[in-house]
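Many groups now describe folds with learned vocabularies. In that spirit, our science desk offers one protein's residues alongside their backbone shape tokens.
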Amino acid sequence: MSDASQKLIFAAAAGNLEQVERLILKEFADVEAKDGDGQTALIAAARAGRLKVVQRLLELRAGIALNAMDASGRTALDHAVENGHKEVVAFMTADVSLLNFSQGLMPAIQRGDEKSMSLILKAAMPTDGQPWPSWADVNMRDVRGQPLLHAGVKSKRPGLLSELLRQPGLEVNSQDRYGRTALDLAVANGEEEMAFLLQKKGAKSSDDLED
């Protein structure tokens, strides 16, 4: 990493907007560069709650990797949510095409991060019978067609799965591209506690669904 790129990450974290602009425009710092922890300037700014820096980074570099992950598997949005930076979260999620919240929810569950998952679900909780917003849909799927619930089973964290199962509108019998339900997966993986939690919520095996 160049010296300018390293300074850019520090400046972004510190909220030094003037230095951020100078490093990008005059010293040609690489906005995609990562430090030893895998942080980009955008991640550093979001993690520290530097709203103006986040906005300016997106203005200066339209093609910036919005959902790059650091060494812990967290995106810029994950860090903003986890650290309670509501203004940054609001900006990032105001336009779904800008920073899709689902990019934070699925990775949080895949890495077994109960805290981040809880914060995201709390922020997106629908009211008055409204559906989940598309950026935090509990029935979302990843690029391979895996439902969020299946990712919860694979996390091997019963507490995480239990909280996910409490969310309104969750489809407990959704199937992946192989036709497996979350209960099928829990049984196949020997996750007895998870299987019990799923059955309490009415989850069925794919064989039972066919009957």
